[in-house]
Amino acid sequence: MQAGESDDSPGTPAPCEVTIVAHDVGSVGGMERQLAELITGLRRLGHDVTVIARTCELPDGTEVRFHRVRGPRRPFLLFYPWFMLAGSLAVRRWRRGVVQATGAIVVNRVDSVAIHCCHQVYRATPTRATRLFRLNVAFGGLVKRAAERMCIRANRNAAIVCVSEGVAEEMREHYPQAAERVMTIHNGVDTETFAPGAHTQAARALRAKLGIGEQRLVVAFVAREWGHKGLQAVIEALALAPDWDLAVAGTGDRERYRALADSIGVGEVVRWLGLVREIPVVYAMADAFVLPSNYETFSLVTFEAAASALPVLATPVSGVRELIRDGENGFVIAAEAQSIADRLNELARDPALRQRIGAAARQSALRFTWDDAVAKHHELYERLASRSARQG
User: Fold this and answer.
1) Is pLDDT above 50 for 256?
2) CATH 1.10.760.10 at 17-188+369-386, yes or no
């Protein structure tokens, strides 16, 4: 698809050609949604955008040049090196203007590397108990860490753009030679889509479909990779917080966690939603949000829950630390059942507290807009394009 043209406003950086390289761009997954918002925002500002990716799902009317990198989807140890080879060839052939790679996924020299995760810190938790799967996860981590080191060394002049201050701190610690090029551009939040009262009718329908009574309180858990996101502690907390139902959105080892819920007598209050595209409706039907994760980079779902005016219960991981002030606009918790249950019980006893905390969470989330995130990328790309023109 051919990108259209638009005039830039006086006094603002001029639009330029930009190439975004990613595994996937779309509506499911925090990183994938961030890329979709970034690309559509760049197009609104008049940038000529090329996307090189395995999949690309954008809103209707978003005109970009999309070059598909075909190849296997799994297992990771096959997909990742395949994309690195095929994607690198695609970048060499179709790159236009400023090139941003989403992590260490190609070997080409690029102008900007978007860091959604510092792999020298993050350790994935296997979601299945089989030996083969655990080996795949372990070797996958080794591959990612090696590729990240290679990428940072190869791109000695590239901007290193991190999605939160926490990730930026990790990158500076592990790559001190690149510290001066590390910067933070926070992800944004769609505060119109994720807003109190925006999906009331659909939320009522969902509660009815799930058989949740009007007087029951609902805490939402939205995540993939349930192991390191802390779902076990949330389910165990239900046994200590009898006023709450739990709505689980996302994919994971459902049978394992269903068995856990049944074994402690809370199986009937856990609602398994599966992969949900209408995430705003999940927040709209809930009275609180919980994510006792052991590692995050920005935690987009937490920011979206806050924008939806939900009291947020979350561990003090990257992104969350920049949003939540304990007791004011949410609660900082430990990834333990008792810690979660104590806060849920406190919220259950005091409807006014739920309203006050939720309203404060909404106000905090309003500071993180997609317009601001896109504008900062817009300025970055203009600087990189100017630098390239001077060097060229």
Assistant:
1) yes
2) no
The two structure tokens encoding residue 23: 């595994």
What is the pLDDT at residue 12? 52
CA-nearest of 250, 333, 335 to 294 is 335
Counting Cβ atoms within 10 Å, is residue 96 exposed (0-12), middle (13-18) or buried (19+)? middle
User: Maximum distance among all alpha carbons in the chain?
Assistant: 67
In the chain, ranges of CATH 3.40.50.2000 domains: 17-188+369-386, 200-365
Q: What is the mean predicted confidence (pLDDT) over 225-230? A: 91
Could you tell me the CA-to-CA distances from 215 to 201, 206, 211, 287, 318 in Å, in that order? 17, 15, 12, 11, 34
For residues 314 and 291, is the Cβ–Cβ distance under 8 A?
Answer: yes
Q: Would you say the C-alpha torsion 27, 23, 1, 64 has a positive or negative sign?
A: positive
Question: Which of 27-31, 105-109, 223-227, 383-387 has maximum average pLDDT?
Answer: 105-109
Residues forming a β-bridge with 246: 219, 270
> How many residues in the chain?
392
Task: For domain 200-365, give the CATH number.
Answer: 3.40.50.2000
Q: pTM for this structure?
A: 0.86
Torsion sign over Cα 239, 328, 321, 193? positive
Residue 288 sits at the vertex; the CA angle it makes with 285 and 290, to the nearest 5 degrees, is 120
Strands annotated E in 186-287: 217-222, 244-249, 270-274
| pLDDT at residue number 13 | 59
pLDDT band at 389; cut points 50, 70, 90: confident
Tokens of 206: 């969902």
pLDDT one-digit tens code per residue, 51-82: 999 999 999 999 999 999 999 888 888 999 99
| Complete DSSP assignment for 138-207 | HHHHHHHHHHHHHHHHH-TTSEEEESSHHHHHHHHHH-GGGGGGEEE----B-TTTS-TTTTHHHHHHHH
Residue 127 — pLDDT band, cuts 50, 70, 90?
Answer: low
